[in-house]
Amino acid sequence: MESETTIPEQPDAEAPAPSAPPSDGEANAEGSPFDQLQKEFEAVRTQAAEYLDGWQRARAEFANYKRRVEKEQAETYQNAAGRIIARFLDVMDDFDRAMKDRPGDDDDAAALAQWTEGVQLIYRKLQNLLDAEGVTRIEAEGQEFNPSQHEAVTHEDNSDHPSGHVIAVLRQGYKLGDRVIRPALVRVAK
Question: Residues 6 or more apart from 125 whose CB is under 8 A from it?
Answer without folding.
Answer: 90, 91, 94
